[in-house]
Amino acid sequence: MNKDQLLSIIDSFCIEGTVADVRPLGNGLINDTYLVLTAQSEHPDYVLQRINHHIFTNVPLLQHNIESVTNHLRSKLTGADANEPDRHVLRFIPTPAGTTFHFDGSSYWRLSVFIADTVTVNEVTPDSSYDCGRAFGHFEQQLTDLPEQLGETIPDFHNMELRLRQLQEAVDHDAVQRARLVNDELKLISIHADEMCIAEQLHRQGLLPKRICHCDTKVNNMLFDRDGRVRCIIDLDTVMPAYVFSDYGDFLRTAANTQAEDSPQLDAIEFRWDIFEAFTRGYLESAAAFLTPVERNHLPFAVMLFPMMQAVRFLADYLNGDVYYKTSYADHNLVRTRNQLHYFQQVEACRHDMAHMIETT
User: Fold this and answer.
1) Concatenated DSSP letters of 49-109
2) Angle at the Cα of 94 (from 92 to 98), degrees rounded to 5?
3) Contacts of 228 (CB under 8 A, 6+ apart)
4) Rounded Cα distance, 236 and 325, in Å
């Protein structure tokens, strides 16, 4: 999309100041994101996003969730934070019609205030992991009394039973004739399939509640200040009712893996205990007040669940012809699958040590 088209879209929102420049921002897999720079220093800069409505099919529901959550979080700010709410909670700019999204005839767009003097990071240290754990636990804790009813922006997003069914459908359909190439991966997934569906079973038994969770807790979905402390949690598209396993397990899926999720260097993949321990201490510090014994006791399961679930999702997309995740080469999703399965095995070997650490914290 050219600059004139982007300027036309920006003009559909009630911004302050004059746009000086628009440039790509970040490298997200789902949405297209741009930084909007204004000419006047007294006015904020903005972040423009094209919402992928093929994935988030109900954009009004999506934005309702985000508005409900951000308004509630703002109401919880106290002290100095309350004086600078735009530095701690995302603020979305309305259109003249009062909505926080604009449809241009083919795509949905939204605009939020850019939080200056912050950075995103792709790797963590034990210190930053501890702070991330506290921040995500605090995020969940603050939303335990959210008065608004939220919907699922991606229904059954972290439902392992559904993800396994989708994988089986991909195998049966074999759209691009790849099923014969992944027998070993399918066998490993099959061995652990029943155990990986414990969350759904516990929920049906009334033993595992759904809470308001972020559901995409990568470290690059947080903004850090110059001192390395979490300033704001961002990328709220997937905020919805879910098990706490989503936020806890998904963070450790990426942060505690010594390799990126698409690294082909399987022998270099290890489970970083220092990251696990630091994140867990921070998370429990914030979340202990509301976690049930069932939730707390199954946190080691959550650390195993998410690399397995992601492997299942990557493999299904590979078999379907790479229609969901952006790929850079033909076997990109297969490499991702193998990476996550290898990481799962590293995590599984530590399950008893994880349980002991959580029990004694």
Assistant:
1) EEE-TTTS--HHHHHHHHHHHHHHHHHH--HHHHH-GGGTS--BPPPTTS-S-EE-SS-EE
2) 135
3) 127, 128, 131
4) 19
The closest of 89, 93, 206 to 143, measured between CA atoms, is 89
pLDDT tens per residue, range 76-129: 999 888 889 999 999 999 999 999 999 999 999 999 999 999 999 988 999 999
Residue 223 in contact with residue 242, Cβ under 8 Å? no
Q: Give the whole-angstrom CA distance, residue 155 versus residue 61.
A: 12
What are 297-356's pLDDT values in tens digits?
999 999 999 999 999 999 999 999 999 888 999 999 999 999 999 999 999 999 999 999
Is 151 in a helix, a strand, or coil?
Answer: coil
Which residues are bridge partners to 37 per DSSP?
Answer: 21
Q: How far from 313 is each of 107, 219, 276, 337, CA to CA, in Å?
A: 25, 20, 23, 8
Stated pTM of the model: 0.92
As a dihedral over the C-alpha atoms of residue 37, residue 72, residue 65, residue 149, rounded to 10 degrees, the angle is -170
| Terminal C-alpha separation, the chain | 51
Six-digit token string for 149: 């009813």
Q: Phi and psi for 101 in degrees, rounded to 5?
A: -145, 155
- Inter-residue contact 225 to 117 (CB < 8 Å): yes
Phi and psi at residue 110, to the nearest 5°:
-145, 160
Per-residue exposure over 35-46, b if at least 16 CB sit within 10 Å of its own CB, e if not: ebebeeeeebbb
